[in-house]
Design a protein that fits this description.
The chain has about 190 residues and is α+β, with helices and mostly antiparallel strands. It is built from 7 helices and 5 strands, in the order H-E-E-E-E-E-H-H-H-H-H-H. The chain has helices at about 1-15, 70-80, 85-95, 100-110, 110-120, 130-135, 145-185; strands at about 20-25, 30-40, 40-45, 50-55, 60-65.
Amino acid sequence: MRKLLFYLLIIILSSPVQANDVLKLKNELVFEGKVTRIKRCTVLFTSNRQRYEIPATEILFIHFGDTDDKVYNDYLIQSEKDPNTCLNGWLDAKNYHGKKEVHFILGFLFGPYAMVATALANPTPQKGVNTMMNSTNKDQFSDPEYLRCYRRKAKAELITMEAIGSVAMLAVVGIALLASWGANSH
């Protein structure tokens, strides 16, 4: 009887007049509403004027009431893409982006100012000569997911080198101060 009611609900809700989405969780709960966004690990769902962010691991299935819906079509396009897009961007930035030695020197000379400038920068694979020459992922250079991961990793790598340069500068200054203090105490 319960299954019959569930299937009846699906049929009623999938009619052209009623174009709502149906979301069924693994715990057998069923919700009617609107899928407003699908992320990599969560689904944003609105039901009875309440917004819910549901982990994808808890969803058994989603039935879209309108197959012309932008969220649904974007999801279909996204699901056809390479699942390693983010990893590819991360690896390209780690392996090829930037002149890390130059950023060490910038950190040594300018300290936190260099880190702020790098944090505000917009690194792209097209700006990196090494990335353009060595990456095998050139077809993903315009993909938003690839670029988001590329930027995040490129900035992290360069800011790390600048931080190491800043610490080296502090160490040099500290040693110089200790040396001058030791020379003055004799």
